[in-house]
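Recall that a protein's primary structure is simply its ordered list of amino acids. Everything else, from secondary elements to tertiary packing, is in principle encoded there. The following example makes that idea concrete.
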Amino acid sequence: MKKIAAIVCTALMTLSLAACSATVSTKDFTGKTVEGQVKSVNGSDVTVQLGEVDGSTLKMGNEAAEFVLDNPTVTVQDASGSKEGSISDVTQDSAVSFKVGKDKKVSDVTVRKDVDSTMTDMSKSYDGK
């Protein structure tokens, strides 16, 4: 009986975590600029929860997308302006803006330290600009 209860609890926890996570987008972002919050970085592969910057707030939606950082130019933008950055500035939970090329390769990254990325609207889907 304890084993059955443990299995049921594990299944319920897994389902509840899956319901809270963003779905991975299959959209083609070639030629677009996308904004969002970095969810994971694995070498040159980056997963971003998509959103849009509205003033000083990053509004995140219900989708994530995977991109490849293809030796990008990195700019860090904060309240005092913009400066040259490096790939090490692209970290988990940072707000970013990507210019996406063919095959989800990103050549230009702006790390947005000038926005608050705490607002989430899980009912929205973002297609890039």
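The beta strands are 23-24, 33-42, 45-54, 57-78, 81-84, 95-100, 105-112, 116-120. Residues 23-120 form a domain with the OB fold (Dihydrolipoamide Acetyltransferase, E2P) fold (CATH 2.40.50).
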